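> example.struct
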């Protein structure tokens, strides 16, 4: 695993991105050397050919990214994979055709584009198949030995078996005498007292401790000896964060929040975030003003009532503030029902509002909240006071999410669907706590980049 943007990314994923980028670039360069009548060096260096070809490669990479081809290694069908590459290359051709109507000197010559794309279509899907098969069969994964069978351990093992690209392989587990739970596909090596013998036999790269009850059951002396012998040992909560990119509330103890310096955001980081959020908020407001005027006109023309919707939300430190949105519901939508979460095909939403929600255009006035300092561009989504009080009573550590400013988008929004149940809210809280723990400009940039994909594909809207 490689840690980039405060996120653990499989090294094989990085290798896939780099190798495919080199392969696609090579296809177009080979086409340039094979088809140009003049010297290829003149085209590449004197006519700016590198920039033109690089733009095409970037467009193809973004197309593959928007098709989720870097999110998972599972290839449901080779035919589907080929269709996805065809679609991405078709978009690249379309954008090149649109460029031909302008006077920008960024077009790739027609024959290079044609022959290069044929090479990409023939080689890139084949390379993807070979690469993923190699990763699945590779024996270089880190060997994990589990100590205990907590619910978090069950989740970790199930996910590692489905995602070999994470580079971690469970080789066995040791259980408590009266709780030798079975873990699917992972052999039981006996009780925790046999830890030293199991390590000597299997030579694990890491021991993951996931025991629910550790008093008098944890073989602390053996763990100390192994730790000083150079064996890596970590709590299952840390492994859970690496695998799922969220904090497990079930594994979280109040003492960790009190004594761990990692769980609370740094004051300098919070101040830095406020500064660049304010700058980007002003820039976004100015750039998006024409679109916001068009949206305001559409709301006014196609539904009765005010253009803007004002609603009280809970901000940093539990302080309420007024959040602004374009109105997407009928006036007085909650007079009878009271405060309720939005649902799929919500009858309170207007026809125009349905499109605004799908494209997230109703959220644009929140840039004004960012400029005012009520919100940041990135952070936990602000919740209504009626829900906050209820959720704090039902979900542990829910109050702690308000230690930073709420955001227009967030880590939970790009990783989890819109939730209208306690289970969904709990999962999103785990993502929020992970974000708070890893708050940094690099993570905010990562979230904003992925938010563009979520918005353009209309995912998670209600």
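> example.seq
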């Amino acid at each position: 695993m490689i840690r980039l943007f405060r996120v653990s990314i499989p090294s094989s994923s990085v290798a896939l991105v780099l190798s495919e980028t080199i392969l696609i670039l090579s296809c177009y360069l080979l086409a340039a050397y094979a088809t140009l009548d003049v010297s290829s060096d003149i085209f590449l260096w004197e006519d700016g050919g590198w920039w033109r070809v690089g733009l095409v490669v970037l467009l193809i990479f973004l197309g593959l990214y928007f098709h989720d081809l870097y999110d998972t290694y599972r290839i449901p069908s080779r035919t589907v994979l080929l269709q996805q590459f065809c679609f991405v290359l078709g978009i690249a051709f379309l954008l090149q055709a649109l460029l031909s109507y302008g006077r920008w000197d960024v077009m790739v010559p027609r024959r290079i584009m044609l022959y290069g794309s044929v090479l990409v279509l023939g080689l890139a899907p084949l390379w993807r198949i070979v690469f993923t098969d190699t990763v699945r069969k590779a024996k270089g994964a880190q060997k994990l030995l589990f100590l205990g069978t907590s619910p978090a351990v069950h989740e970790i093992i199930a996910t590692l078996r489905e995602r070999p690209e994470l580079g971690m392989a469970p080789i066995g587990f040791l259980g408590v005498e009266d709780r030798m739970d079975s873990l699917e596909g992972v052999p039981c090596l006996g009780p925790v007292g046999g830890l030293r013998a199991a390590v000597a036999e299997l030579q694990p790269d890491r021991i993951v401790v996931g025991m629910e009850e550790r008093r008098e059951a944890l073989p602390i002396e053996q763990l100390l000896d192994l730790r000083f012998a150079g064996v890596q040992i970590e709590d299952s909560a840390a492994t859970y964060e690496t695998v799922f990119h969220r904090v497990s509330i079930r594994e979280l103890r109040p003492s960790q929040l009190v004594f761990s310096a990692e769980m609370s955001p740094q004051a300098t980081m919070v101040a830095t975030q406020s500064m660049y959020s304010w700058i980007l908020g002003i820039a976004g407001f100015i750039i998006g003003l024409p679109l916001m005027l068009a949206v305001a006109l559409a709301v006014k023309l196609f539904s009765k009532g005010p253009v803007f919707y004002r609603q009280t939300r809970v901000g940093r430190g539990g302080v309420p503030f007024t959040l602004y949105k374009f109105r997407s519901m009928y006036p007085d939508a909650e007079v009878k029902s009271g405060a309720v979460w939005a649902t799929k095909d919500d009858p309170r939403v207007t026809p125009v509002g349905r499109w605004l929600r799908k494209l997230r255009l109703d959220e644009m006035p929140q840039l004004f909240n960012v400029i005012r300092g009520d919100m940041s561009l990135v952070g936990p989504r602000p919740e209504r006071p009626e829900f906050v009080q209820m959720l704090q009573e039902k979900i542990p550590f829910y109050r702690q999410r308000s230690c930073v400013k709420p955001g227009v988008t967030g880590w939970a929004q790009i990783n989890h669907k819109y939730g209208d149940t306690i289970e969904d809210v709990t999962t999103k809280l785990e993502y929020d706590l992970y974000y708070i723990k890893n708050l940094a400009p690099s993570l905010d940039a990562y979230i904003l980049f992925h938010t563009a994909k979520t918005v353009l594909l209309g995912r998670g809207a209600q």
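> remarks
The two ends are 35 Å apart (CA to CA).
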